[in-house]
């Protein structure tokens, strides 16, 4: 998406947020088995124009069967984290070849599911602040669970 010449004037962060929002809308519509009228109403509430709503609904309808197959293959039980590994990455340049010199962490979660055993590892990149925030939230969750089991 970032390489599309029609989108070169749009801030990459805004573009990524729009992509995530569209993907979320599509997945939720598929999960809820929403019909075209429900999707149209939702998109009208988001102030999209009729032409874009029609185009979105046409594409959604065309790909709905594939989406249902994809959602069905995900499974029903949540993944269980069995191990975590990480490494420090030092980014020198970004996609636009601007020098950044930013350290970040590549975190890999080894996961398994009770449905079918093993799954591909979940990997993500984060800054030190984001990693500290994640660790803090995990500690809060552990404390909450500890308190709940003591009652």
Strand and helix layout:
Blueprint: H1 12-32, H2 36-45, H3 50-74, E1 80-93, E2 99-113, E3 117-118, E4 122-126, H4 128-150
Antiparallel strand pairs: 1-2, 2-3, 2-4
Helix pairs in contact: 1-3, 2-3
Family: Belongs to the COMM domain-containing protein 3 family.
Domain COMM: 80-149
Protein name: COMM domain-containing protein 3
In short:
The protein is of the alpha+beta class. 52% of the residues lie in helices and 24% in strands.
Write down the overall geometry.
extended
Percent range for β-strand residues:
15-25%
Q: Please describe the biggest sheet, giving its number of strands, its sense, and whether it closes into a barrel.
A: 4 strands, antiparallel
Show unreliable segments.
none
**Order of SSEs, N→C?**
HHHEEEEH
Describe the protein in words.
The protein is an alpha+beta fold. It has two domains: 12-74; 80-150, no CATH class. Helix content is 52%, strand content 24%. Strands 1, 2, 3 and 4 form a four-stranded antiparallel beta sheet that branches. Helix 1 (12-32) crosses helix 3 (50-74) and helix 2 (36-45) crosses helix 3.
């Amino acid at each position: 998406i970032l390489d599309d010449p029609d989108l070169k004037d749009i801030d990459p962060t805004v573009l990524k947020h729009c992509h995530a929002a569209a993907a979320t809308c599509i997945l939720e519509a598929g999960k809820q088995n929403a019909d075209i009228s429900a999707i149209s109403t939702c998109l009208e509430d988001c102030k999209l124009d009729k032409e874009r709503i029609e185009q979105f609904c046409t594409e959604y309808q065309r790909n709905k069967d594939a989406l249902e197959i994809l959602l069905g293959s995900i499974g029903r039980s949540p993944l269980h984290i069995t191990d975590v590994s990480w490494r420090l990455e030092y980014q020198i340049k970004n996609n636009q070849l601007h020098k950044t010199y930013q350290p970040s962490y590549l975190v890999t979660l080894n996961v398994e599911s009770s449905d079918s055993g093993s799954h591909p590892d979940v990997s993500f990149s984060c800054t030190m602040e984001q990693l500290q925030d994640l660790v803090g939230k995990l500690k809060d969750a552990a404390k909450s669970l500890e308190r709940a089991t003591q009652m």
